[in-house]
Design brief:
Blueprint (H helix, E strand, L loop, with lengths): L4 H6 L3 H9 L2 H9 L1 H18 L3 E4 L5 H10 L4 E2 L9 E3 L13 E5 L11 E4 H12 L7 E9 L8 E7 L2 H10 L1 E2 L4 H7 L3 E6 L9 E5 L8 E5 L4 H4 L2 H17 L2 E3 L2 E6 L5 E7 L6 H5 L5 H6 L2 E6 L3 E6 L2 E5 L4 E5 L9 H6 L5 E3 L2 E2 L5 E2 L30 E5 L16 E9 L9 E3 L3 H9 L2 E3 L11 E3 L12 H14 L5 E5 L19 H12 L6 E2 L4 E2 L13 H6 L5 H16 L7 H17 L1
Parallel strand pairs: 1-6, 3-19, 4-5, 4-10, 7-9, 9-11, 14-23, 23-27
Antiparallel strand pairs: 2-3, 6-7, 6-8, 10-11, 12-16, 13-14, 13-15, 16-17, 17-23, 18-22, 19-22, 20-21, 24-27, 25-26, 28-29
Helix pairs in contact: 2-4, 3-4, 3-8, 5-7, 14-15, 14-19, 18-19
Bound molecules: guanosine-5'-triphosphate, sulfopyruvate and manganese (II) ion (MN).
């Protein structure tokens, strides 16, 4: 695949490469279960090692976490945090120019043309891309160990899961993957059974941001998908299982096979009668998925018998099983935003991240406890994310600083988390950061009107990607950075999914981020979001039949939100209203974006767009 197969077979280290690969317990198991895949993967690893000039190869069996952590700690690349308060927790500092996903360096590489990926993607001819990749990868691992990380996305042996291999020289990447995916020996059977896998080739190279690329080749690797990423070592750029595989490559497969790979959290909500409703939510990066997936009902809700548990905090794969969408979490851990996580906003996350967690780019106090904005008063002598004594001017933690935590550290996992068939999804929430216009909640009147909610999503950008923060941009279904083919076709795919479902989820639009004239959030958010969730559950089960009928959709009667005493009713009222004029403006603003997809934009969605628009006009 990399054009060095022949040479790789005679290279200097090849004999020892082969021995290192063969000595891995994972590879031994793989060989027993599926000799074909074993041979293919052995060749690919050897070829990549040859190209990068790696000194040796280590295939991850699943028990290496301590050894690698100790190594990095000894070398001063990991800082051990306070063992009494944060057992087995470490801090990693990344270079200040490598702190977030880089969308401008992210490419979809195919043989046809840019039309295939549409106006929201960077496209490169796959042969040109491969040439750039090879020249950067060549010799980039001289003297280093090449790690091959076999991982499985989804419950083991689930028919909805998928396997992958990430080959990398970054031990930081290996440690992250060991926390956020299922890795090593235990995944050999699942990969062997599936008989296919996504290949991820990563190299830190020289971490040169000028030559940073995250390239996706959906047609390579026997059409199972190939990702090549170099000159970066951060988050979604480098943890190839996450956005590259579980969203971008998976989206190609999902379109072909009739399912959905979404940037969604998924939560189970139990009502006082014990009945469960599963609700998923697509909010853009750094816009509340992890927090909503860990929602703790306010005390009086808990007393009434409401309870919540988590399936996914970032990505959900959904398959049609007999007319119902069933969702699984492909991941096995969190790569969550640290700032503003606190006992007040998200106690479940705080408890989870107090052990076995790898922090990236947060601050630390004098006792080596992690510290970030939103935790409370700043202790004296805090060290910021770049290792300097905090001067009160810049940030203590980078706004995109993260915690990497195994999912089982979280106390309230849904019993369906490991269900190979997933959980039945009853609602989709779209939304994001919008300080104006978009109400707290509205319910779509039909599946296609819900698809329109998703397609029309315009939100403020965040620190999760390099670039300006707080700028409004189109981010349909929170998938703009992750939708690898033409967005118009994606809308069509959504519409088709709606048609084949007997029980399509109800679709909602939510917005926790409306601001008042002073720039303060109007809605208290976090655990108070339970009030909105309760309304959704009761709309689904039919307990609440009366709602305000607006041109955009249904919104709650204010009393159905059971507001707490300390909020200003009038302010809340204002965020439940539909501003018809404002929405008509929004429709005008979105039109050129929709038109940019040309004939790929579904006729059906244009019709929906005009229907809703007409309703708004009649309102004036
Ligand atoms: P990614 O991991 O980047 O995909 O982000 P995410 O969508 O999981 O967002 P997350 O839940 O980590 O929240 C991002 C930021 O938004 C954090 O700083 C949160 O504290 C803040 N946030 C989350 N939920 C709410 C809310 O209901 N209200 C307000 N005001 N802020 C919130
Ligand atoms: C996001 O940006 O949506 C994330 C963080 O979840 S990253 O893994 O870096 O993509
Ligand atoms: Mn995310």
């Amino acid at each position: 695949m990399l054009g060095v197969e022949k040479e790789a077979k005679q290279g200097q280290f090849v004999q020892s490469y082969r021995e290192e690969i063969g000595s891995s317990l994972f590879m031994k198991l793989l060989r027993k279960e599926n000799e074909g895949i074993f041979n293919e993967v052995s060749d690919l690893i050897t070829e990549y090692a040859f190209l990068t000039g790696a000194h040796s190869i280590h295939v991850i069996d699943g028990n290496e976490e301590k050894t690698i952590t100790d190594e990095l700690h000894r070398e001063g690349k990991l800082i051990k945090l306070n063992e009494s308060n944060f057992p087995n927790c470490y801090l990693y500092r990344s270079p200040p120019f490598d702190v977030a996903r880089s969308e401008k360096d992210t490419y979809i590489c195919t043989e046809r043309g840019p039309e295939e990926v549409g106006p929201t993607n960077n496209w490169m001819n796959s042969r040109d891309a491969m040439k750039i990749a090879i020249s950067n990868l060549k010799g980039s691992m001289a003297g280093k160990v090449l790690y091959a990380v076999p991982y499985w996305l989804g419950p083991l042996s689930s028919g909805f899961g998928d396997g992958g291999f990430e080959l990398t020289d970054s031990r930081y990447v290996v440690l992250n993957l060991m926390k956020i995916t299922r890795v090593g020996e235990k995944v050999a059977k699942s990969i062997a059974m599936k008989n296919s896998y996504v290949l991820g080739l990563h190299s830190t190279a020289r971490l040169n941001p000028e030559k940073r690329f995250i390239m996706h080749f959906p047609d390579e690797n026997r059409k199972m998908g190939l990702v090549v990423s170099f000159n970066t070592d951060y988050g979604g750029n480098a943890l190839l299982s996450k956005k590259c595989h579980a969203l971008r490559i998976a989206s190609f497969k999902a379109r072909r096979e009739g399912w959905l790979a979404e940037h969604m959290m998924l939560i189970e909500v139990k009502d006082p009668s014990g009945k469960s409703t599963f609700i998923s939510g697509a909010f853009p990066s750094s816009s509340g998925k992890t927090n909503l997936s860990m929602l703790k009902p306010p005390e009086h809700y808990a007393k009434e018998g409401w309870a919540t548990s988590l399936i996914s905090d970032d990505i959900t794969w959904m398959n049609n099983v007999e007319g119902t969408l069933r969702g699984i979490n492909p991941e096995y851990g969190f790569f969550g935003v640290a700032p503003h996580t606190s006992m007040k906003t998200n106690p479940g996350a705080m408890e989870a991240i107090m052990k076995n967690t790898l922090f990236t780019n947060v601050g630390i106090d004098r006792d080596r406890n992690p510290f970030w904005e939103g935790m409370g008063p700043v202790p004296d002598g805090v060290i910021d994310w770049q290792g300097r004594v905090y001067d009160g001017k810049e940030k203590i933690a980078h706004p995109n600083s993260r915690f990497t935590t195994p999912i089982h550290e979280y106390a309230d996992l849904s019993k369906d988390y490991e269900n190979p068939m997933g959980a039945p999804v009853s609602a989709f929430l779209f939304g994001g950061r919008r300080s104006d216009l978009i109400p707290l909640i509205m319910e779509a009147k039909s599946w296609n009107e819900g698809v329109l909610f998703g397609a029309m999503q315009r939100v403020e950008t965040t620190a999760a990607a390099i670039g300006k923060v707080g700028e409004l941009r189109n981010d349909p279904m929170a998938m703009r950075p992750f939708m690898p083919y033409n967005m118009g076709e994606y809308f069509q795919h959504y519409i088709e999914i709606g048609k084949i479902l007997k029980n399509p989820p109800k679709i909602y639009n939510v917005n926790w981020f409306r601001k008042d004239g002073m720039g303060n959030f109007i809605w208290p958010g976090y655990s108070e979001n339970m009030r909105v969730v309760e309304w959704i559950v009761k709309r689904i089960d039919g307990t609440i039949t009366s709602a305000v009928d607006t041109p955009m959709g249904y919104v709650p009667n204010i009393d159905d939100l059971r507001l707490p005493a300390n909020v200003e009713r009038d302010k809340i009222k204002s965020i439940l209203e539909i501003d018809a004029k404002g929405f008509l403006n929004e429709f005008d603003t979105i039109e050129p974006f929709f038109k940019s997809f040309g004939s790929m934009f579904p006729e059906e969605l244009w019709r929906t767009y005009h229907n809703v628009r007409d309703r708004l006009e009649r309102e004036l």
